[in-house]
Amino acid sequence: MNIRRAEPKDLTKIQQCNLHNLPENYHMKFWAYSFITWPEVSYLAEDSSGRVVGYVLSSIEPDEEFPWLQVGHVNSLSVLRTYRRLGLAKRLMLLSQKAMIDSYKIEYIQLHVRKSNRAAFSLYSEKLGFKIHRKEVGYYGDGEDAYSMRIVLKPRSFTHRIGRRFHAFLYARQRAVANWTLKCSKRASQIK
Asked: Distance between CA atoms of 153 and 147, rounded to whole angstroms?
């Protein structure tokens, strides 16, 4: 078994693995964009004949609440059934996680997992330390709910804490200006 960083030349083999295992499939453009933009965070496992038997496709994105922070996102993880229970998924995830930390200094990694996928949920929560962040109703194309899961890699940094306070300060100032403007416009309409 050979585990290595995925490359653009592996796209069709990875997509075959994806089509074989998962009901959700990404367009080839998405795969290509991910490999070009974040080449160091996706990995694959191949057998002795060079067939892809598992992969992890990851990316880096801004945090939802604090866009100046970068977070890792596991878009897809899949291992062919005959190669499961060998620890491949865990090894692929750990390699991707290390690459995200080393290359991008991310705050946390997030992923989505089907509510019904108990095996994947167990891998993420029990073996890799992910926690449920929230439940997303109807996340998947067939309407199934997903758990959005995260693993925090480092405590919130000083920059994050300052950024959060600055964000709250700006929001309070904007609200105060909006209220003042509303009061002024009401007074102006009363004078007329």
From this structure: 19
Residue 152 pairs in a beta bridge with: 108
Could you count the other beta carbons within 10 Å of the beta carbon of residue 115?
A: 15
Q: Whose CA is closest to 92, among 14, 178, 33?
A: 14
What three-state secondary structure class fits 18?
Answer: helix
pTM: 0.75
Per-residue pLDDT of the chain (192 residues; tens, 9 = 90+): 889 998 888 887 877 777 676 667 667 788 788 888 888 999 999 999 988 889 999 999 988 887 878 899 999 898 988 888 899 999 999 999 999 999 888 889 999 999 999 999 999 999 999 999 999 999 888 888 999 999 988 765 555 556 666 666 766 777 777 777 777 777 767 776
Whether residue 31 contacts residue 7, with contact meaning beta carbons closer than 8 Å, is answered with: no
Q: Which amino acid is at 92?
A: L
Residue reference for tokens 């078994």: 1
Using CA atoms, how far residue 186 sits from 16, 125, 174, 178, 191, in Å, is 64, 54, 18, 12, 9
